[in-house]
């Protein structure tokens, strides 16, 4: 058990960001990783030119890296936004325009997990209206994901850093997962269990793992406090990942932490090189 027993991937939207997007897959490969994940890379547009999508695919292929997770368009992220799908008007339209683009790109690179960030509460908008819009858009996203053999992920964030985001507990996200699956009948909506976010919310991580491992489609980690690499804070991440495995989770663990003041390539000393390649 322990870290060497896990299947890790590197989030290239928070690590290796000192490099241009197209150079990050090769940098991850040079550090020993073969699996990577990304937030939606084109924050200004849900529908980038095909040439840009092709260039990213080539960069992934040339590096020998496998994209295992991708966010749908989520607005300005990093930045003030936390998704677009529950935001009435232009942002919801942009999310819808992105659904098939993201799904088709995922299919082109063999990515089987698509994360749909819920979006912030908007001043002057009825939360019930936002939730109805969210369900409508998540159903569309779940169907698109199913078309390409992927799961749809729903993520809980943390209230201190995302005070306007309504899904700031595991049960809140699970409720949305269940609602989407009930609406589609597909069963491909899953929980994205991020141990950093849940710890920031003060949740009992062991209890969350026991309750929701079966509904979990992906796991992400960072230490707390600080959102740094494992070992920089006080979370017992190695033990928690073992608990997830014991509870039946067999998926990957996304490394979604900040490298600190050092280059990203130096932020993996906690993980033996032999344990970095996907298995």
Written account of the structure:
The chain is an alpha/beta fold. Helix content is 36%, strand content 13%. An 8-stranded parallel β-barrel has the order 1-2-3-4-5-6-7-8, surrounded by 4 helices. The radius of gyration is 17 Å and the shape is globular.
Topology:
Elements: E1 8-11, H1 24-30, E2 35-38, H2 50-63, E3 66-71, H3 90-109, E4 113-115, H4 127-147, E5 151-155, H5 170-184, E6 189-194, H6 195-200, H7 205-212, E7 216-221, H8 237-246, E8 253-255
Keywords:
about 280 residues; alpha/beta; eight-stranded parallel barrel; 8 helices; about 35% helix
Cα-to-Cα separation, first versus last residue: 15 Å
| Helix/strand order | EHEHEHEHEHEHHEHE
Spatial extent as radius of gyration: 17 Å
Strand content: 5-15%
Instruction: Estimate the mean pLDDT confidence.
Output: 98
Strand order of the largest sheet: 1-2-3-4-5-6-7-8
| Shape category | globular
Number of helices: 8
The parts where pLDDT drops under 50 for at least 5 residues are: none
Number of strands: 8
Give a summary of the structure in a few sentences.
This protein is of the alpha/beta class.
